[in-house]
Amino acid sequence: MQFTGNGVVTGYNERRPFIIPNSVVDNGDGSYSENTTPIYIADSSYQTYFNDYGWGNGGMAYLINRTYAKLRNISLSWNVPSKWLSKIYLKELVLTAYCNNAFIWTAKDNRYVDPETTSVTSYGDLAYGFGELYCNPSNRTFGLNLKVNF
Fold it and tell me: What is the pTM of this model?
């Protein structure tokens, strides 16, 4: 989400260049000096920072709790009474209103990922195991269905 600018952390310093607070640079001789190099949202240095340092071993900046519960579909159907239909020569008339992807409840630290989605298919099991690469939340859709039998 840092790559696309959708992560909450990318809003730091109102997306203006900044130096990572309390950061140092390895001088190569075993000593360190204060970091004076700013990172920028626009030139990929922000993404590079998270790729290289990722908040500890294993890239903790990229790991989120994927626990979730989802209400995938809500539908409400009404069968029009048959005594009304006989006057217009119909056997059955059903009206249905529905909502798909109605709600999703995710872990507190997961503010932006639907754990079931991914835009990556080229990494084999990696995409299916981790799932949330470059995806926006699933769309919530509303609709109506009409079923008529003569």
Answer: 0.56
